[in-house]
Batch of 2 targets.
Target 1
Amino acid sequence: MSRLMRIFIIHILSWMSSCLLGDGLPFDLLSISGLRHFKANNLTNPGCAQAALDDLKKKASIALNNQQPYSVTNSSRSPPNGNEHGYYSWAPYFHANCSGVPHIKDPMTDCPYQRIDGKYATDLRLLTDPRDSGSMVNDVLALSIYYYLYEDEKYATKAVQLLNVWFLDPDTAMRPNIEFGQVVRGPGEWVGRVEGILDMRYYVYIPAAVELLTNSTAVGGSNSQFTKEMKTWFFQYGNWLLTSKLGTGARNAANNHATFYVVQLATYFAWTGQEKKAIILIQEFRDRQFQYQIIKSGEQPLESGRTRSFHYQAFNLIALTYIARLSEKINGAPNFWEQKTKQGATIKTAVDYLVDQGFPKDDPIYFMVPLYSAKQHYGDSTGKYNKFLSKLLQIDIPGDEWWLFWNPLALNDAGSMPPKVGTNRTDDDDIEEDGGGYTPADTNETVKWSSGALSITNSSVLCNYFVWGSLWILILGFIPRL
């Protein structure tokens, strides 16, 4: 098929889909209202946020000067079906077991692979799609936030270029599915798995980035052709999630796979004008999987049995608090903050359970976003949330990611910064339970929290939720790491 024909077909599909898509909800999952408040009230005198702005500028400038836009077609290894436009990743916890296998020519195809929970395969970097996917989201967010704050068109132009190359250009675009995510290697057919859908969880931030870019010349408004084509891609990906065998499998999962499935699909429903479907999806999850995810004590038994108990419970809470925040923005959606499980537990019960466990060695930083989100909704009458947050904010985090702040007024208060301590995180720590996630940037770089950037008191708002520290907690925080 010629390139012109492909372009023509994409434009026709875009036009047809735009007839089906409503305007959708204005997206605020990135706390756009917080950016708006900061821009209007604090940008000229940022105070404790200056270090954050400096780091944002650094990351946006690096993205601006990237001369090789990310694309699935850049990979040296195509998916098993040979289509270079397909996203491709391997199951990170599966390892070749060549014991007793005769005449081994290639361990990847000759040896069976066995799962070892929490232990990462050493050759994951051979596939570039996961890493590039995360880097694309990271760069687009840095560029779009910088454009929104400073209205410098060249940053918007670069963000749109990255989005075009990854999602829209017929020569380089990723297909709107993940048929070959988290493939288990070895003898036999290599196929995608339900777990691979977790690889795409970062894409829930793309609608927010597009919203930030709306008034730029590069985008041209909320009804521009670019915006329609972006919504079309996510409309098609949402349809794949809804109807495909793998998507159905994720929807019927019991643990964090189902939770993050709802995070993704409800987001895309909401953005593409399908709010009623988003409400139905959230209600279905509330009445099914959520009923069994948190027991009376607050423990999440489907996550606590993993090799990193605290980590995976915090991971699921990232998604649960995201759903709660999203539900607040959809008229008619249930108040997910107050929903109870079969044993009478709520999100707060699960948050309290982890706080009461004490400060863990098990990668506690993943708890930052759900804990702060819970504090904002439920309050903190005893001060224990702030006490735990103060410990979290003393940790040095690898600087390839940054924190988004979640409170519209998060930059009102400032204070003193407690001393920092080290972290035992490794390059692979953001790869979730067969969920992919690979670090986009140099893990040798470390971002220090802004000096004078934090005051934890019962009444203060954490200033350095604007300080760019670790956003693997982009989904909610999470940009991938390998």
Target 2
Amino acid sequence: MTNDTNSRLHNTTTCFPISYGSIAFYLGKDNIHNNPTATHRWTLYVRSPDPTYDLSQSISKVIFQLHPSFPQPTRELTQPPFEVTEMGWGEFEASIRIVWKEEAEERPVLLTHFIKLYPSNAPVATVDPSTYMNTTVPVVSEKYDEVVFTNPKVVFHKQLLDGQQQSRKNKKKKQLTYPLSHESSVMEHFRTYGDETDVKAMLAAKEFLQKELRSMVAAVAALSLLASNATAFQFPSPTSTAVTTSNRRDVIKDIVSKGAIGFGAIVASNSYNVEAANALVEGNVPPGKGDGDEVKEGKKVNMQWVLRRSNGYFVDSSAVSDSVPFIFTVGDPNGAIQGLDEGIRGMKAGGTRRILIPPRLAWMQGVDDGKPGPLPAGFGPRQQMRRVMKDRIDVPGEYIFLEVKVSKVR
């Protein structure tokens, strides 16, 4: 890595999570009689999902553009908390421009947010709000997003790291140098995202950088294997047409018929039974060419792994985490997910295999630390699997690809 702070980090992406939204309180019927144009008090804001992360390390200013009917509709804030509090009676769409530190040389990010004053299930506008709203329960409308910087400047990358390091210090002190909000009632209703460990992992920019670089190396190696074997199945590229639900089963059968790449191994088509109840888990999965003890009930297994979505997109890998093996005892319900526990049996040390696992045999207990694994690391990969488990568990032809290489059986 270069020491020139004006240069850029090549082949590098850095993820910066943010939350933005509005929280609106109904002021009550008595207040409306006194001021009919002020039915609600609302706060529009931009914040970090991690309540200990120092936004001042990376953000220069935030510009809020309100409805033209407000005095000074353009509000510019140069210090956190980045928020605007007003009173009004109507809902409208506001724009939020996030300007990064000047030395970052990054374009501002423009967001839009619709300020909601009434709940989604509110009756028609002619109904008196006091009949279905109270002054203590706000209407919260918040979004989570991730800003991705490609090849960031060295100095800006350091600022992101400084924000993370400051976060760790703040965690010990239990405070920032500024309040999360000037409105105490607003702070009470900020949403939380995942477990703290996941959020910290996402904000650890240095660790994320290392993982991205290792992932790129692994991807290049996989592409080399695909290029060297003309019979291998070619996954759709990020620029190709996405795999749809209707043709997903055809894609999986194509993988089976042409062979599947995982750690350089080609798996024969006649070794699988795609019509089995558990798809390629209950089928006759080949053991690979490994030698030594066979994986079976009660054996402790060390393995390397690569996790992909059913469209072939990479999610995570043990290689990204310094090739630390996943270790579990076969048959232990708290060790590995059911699909892996079933699909790895019969293998030997040195063997490789790709297992296609339906979601109902995957992370049924969740992807948080301490659950059956292997567990994807970091907030982003875990969120991908959470969405699969929540939204696609009953989709016909939906599978998770788990490529495994057994390194030790004992």
